[in-house]
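Fold it.
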Amino acid sequence: MDTNLPVSAQPRVLIVGCGFGGLKLAQDLADAPVQVVMVDRNNYHNFQPLLYQVATGALEPDSIAYPVRKIFAGQKNFFFRLANVTGVNPAANRLQTNLGDISYDYLVLATGSLTNFFGIESIEKNAMQIKSIPNALNLRSYIFQNFEQAILETDPARKQSLLNIVVVGGGPTGVEISGSLAEMRKHTLPKDYPELDLNKMQIYLVEAGPALLGPMSKASQDDAKHYLDELGVDVRLNTAMKRYEDGRAYYSDTEFIATDNMVWAAGVNGAALPGLPEAAITRNKRITVNLFNQVEGETNIFAIGDVANMVTPEMPKGLPMLAPVAQQQASHLADNLQRLLRGEKPKDFSYLDKGVMAIVSRNKAVVDLPKGIHFKGFLGWLSWLFIHLILLVGFRNKLVALVDWAFSYFSSGQALRLIIRPFNKYDVKDDLGKKAAEHAAATLEYNPTPSAVQQEPVR
């Protein structure tokens, strides 16, 4: 019982997930009179905004991951358990895991998000995604395996299918990976694969809405589209993918793009847990919370970050799924939990918008700041590098990322084009993909509006 956690006279705050929100909350509770217990299915914090760089060989996974136990070494009130969470029993104040139940006085759900396939089974089964480090490594291996196979292929149509890459979703993830792939096609792949005519390699970015980067300004949308056009990416707006099977990505009943490489970055669902009140779960699987981050219908269960649906007058559809939201909610909740322990009334949360940004390629990025400030190009690119470097956990990770980025910049190519573990997408589907299928509503249509296209927690 309680997975061998020490008995404490202090109330237990049980945090599920070590993303941006869970990490910040545990850190801010370091000096609080509570026992902090964190549960995660990975023993590391994963910096999701840079997953696409792992997928394209710009960074290795250990550059964007940091061990949980090392982060909290020396924090005496912190305990970690590596486990898969299966549900919650609010009546008994117990979290259900594969290791057994864990009791809590306060439960904080910082579970993040899962890929939303909009109920399209053929895409869930056959497309690649980049929501985790295993996903990114699988994608990297699969793309380079297909290049190796293309060298041997004698059928022109089959060779073209192996070279073509279709990225679905025009949010930050889709834009960033499309731009990175286009740079690889220009600078890196011709050196590695001189036997292939890479002028025939086509990169498609397919977006169901009328513009890229839906939540950003019109200027950023137009600039990103212009940059991708310059890089030779075939951007197709107002185009929704219908299905993906037999190496064909259908955007109508009969029209398709021949490709063995589809990257799905079209949206996400919140990662709500079984056992919570059904009335608190929204259509996109986020958990409705009040301005204290308290789950609707519960007194001692809270949710922060991507999984939390906090509606404000300024954000009637809920706060965006961004890292700053998760971090600010975590700090605010840490303060409110201590207020509750003192018998004081918690304070309402107020989000401070720090802006959003997206990188397209080297020297090409777009940045939107509050009060309508927008800039782009080299300055935007430098800003993106600086912010992401600062947010990386651990000095070593910052140093390694900086060195790798400098090498890529001055050598005009990625150095980490390794097939570490051969991957067959038809034989292996990781747990994240299965869970995403479980959480995706079967009746949800794939026709996202800009406000509905939620991307990875970045910026």
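Residues 2-115+269-341 form a domain with the FAD/NAD(P)-binding domain fold (CATH 3.50.50.60).
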